[in-house]
Amino acid sequence: MKTRVLLSAILALSSAAVMSAQGGGGKGGAKGPPRPVLYVTTNAWPDGGEVPMHYAGRMGGDNKSPAFEFHWNLGTEPTSAPDTLQSYAVVFHDIENSTNKTTTDTLHWAAFNIPGSAKGLPEGLGAGDLPDGTRNGPGIANRGGNPGAYFGPGAGPGPFHHYVFEFYALDTKLDLPATCSRDELMKAMDGHVVGKAAYYGRFHGM
Q: One digit per residue, pLDDT tens: the chain, 206 residues?
């Protein structure tokens, strides 16, 4: 009998946790209104697949940023972006590396203030501040006072490194210089994220 009571309590707590994670738990157990969800696609490689040398920062690669398309769904149906959307940001990092023996991984590239009206990113995005307001920020390329720019995967021979592009949809534009740090960028975005998506790739040199 005690075992049945304990199992019932565990199941009840689990159900409550699931409802909370899905946005439920309002008055009467009603869920909140569904929200548009951001996702991204590219023809450059399959999500989780191997990154072609065309997009790599190693010798022999073209170091071209891949094209991405932005999409919004409401449930399973395409929908418009939220009315509050003002800008996008992208943070591209090698999650396999640790920097200076810390838990921080290697930031390859970040860009922010991508217009909220943008439907994606073109291949071969330019460096520095772009005409549409996009600002290339912290990353490998802007070290030593150079303008920020995309810097592709560069892992050497051996096990694959795993690279992730994180996309943030924001309800604001960021008042940050191109020389801001990664921590400053993430802090400025905090509290303004109305959508987030990620796309992965694997790479190692031959």
A: 444 444 344 334 344 433 333 344 444 445 778 899 999 999 999 999 999 999 999 999 999 999 999 999 999 999 999 999 999 999 999 999 887 888 999 999 999 999 999 999 999 999 999 999 999 999 999 988 899 999 999 999 999 999 999 999 999 999 999 999 999 999 999 999 999 999 999 999 88
Domain membership of residue 77 as a residue range: 34-203
Rg (CA), the chain: 20
Same-domain status, 2 and 82: no
- Do 44 and 1 fall within a single domain? no
Q: Are residues 6 and 65 in the same domain?
A: no
Residue 166 has which token pair?
């994180």
Q: Are residues 118 and 195 in the same domain?
A: yes
